[in-house]
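Hi,

I'm pasting everything inline rather than attaching a file, because the server keeps stripping attachments. The sequence lines come first, and each chain or strand is labelled.
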Amino acid sequence: MEQLKNDLRQCGLRVTDQRLAVYDWLQKNPVHPTADVIWQALLPRYPNLSLTTVYNTVNALAEHGLIRTVTIDRAEQRFDGDVDDHGHFHCRLCGRITDFPIDPEDVKGMLPKGFIPEQCDVFVKGLCAACAH
Amino acid sequence: MEQLKNDLRQCGLRVTDQRLAVYDWLQKNPVHPTADVIWQALLPRYPNLSLTTVYNTVNALAEHGLIRTVTIDRAEQRFDGDVDDHGHFHCRLCGRITDFPIDPEDVKGMLPKGFIPEQCDVFVKGLCAACAH
DNA sequence: TGCTAAATTGTAATCGTTACAAACAACAAC
DNA sequence: GTTGTTGTTTGTAACGATTACAATTTAGCA
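And the predicted assembly:
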């Protein structure tokens, strides 16, 4: 938790209970949640927490690279506490999101000359191992 | 244009002026447009064209694999007449989207055992060659 | 030519997200 | 500690891309 506080401070963000709660929850729950899911999960412990604050917080964290945004369904934004490069697999049957390791160098090798990549997203749709059996 | 008609018919979709116009425009304008952009572009020639019809059409075309959807900015859906596998590069300075070739086999090789991919999306953010100079 | 199911149209609704202004709290200086 | 400044939180209202809906029109076929 001290680490999280330092992360916030190093980004020039003030340390607040709400931010710590959101950040900490994302670290411990790698489920690619929407803002609403985070809000629902924290409400019991923070009854005054506003959904707006959750949005403000995840936007601030994402802007400073402390978390990443994931677009699985265009209709809603999801967030990911894991900022290391990795791919996302979306099973069209069970709907589950599975992370898988990628080598960003492989992806960067696909780019035309002169292009400078800063963030790679690899997103695959299909059938997961369980649903394909 | 005959080809486009056949594409529609083979998907069990009726051939209408509106669908042909949208489909044809997407083929000839590889600019990853939003529904609104398509609508604005076609309005001069089809003054009665409804934005709803553009949405209906791109959704129908995408559902049958005749076009693909691209999510560059989560806030709005874009469409791509090129259904072959390729990556999208989004320059954070000029905002331009550049297509680049990918080898889907490379991407599939990153997946865990047993996972069956059906569609791959590779999306890279950074600086394009022109902006990086 | 007429029938029927599908497509188009315009309007109204939906819903995730953001704008805004007032109340509050972090944190640095004293 | 106390204070002051500035950033943050909160609730509500607005926003905007997309979709639902019902009435009208049209494609495709007998």
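Chain B has a mean pLDDT of 93.

If the labels don't parse on your end, tell me and I'll reformat.
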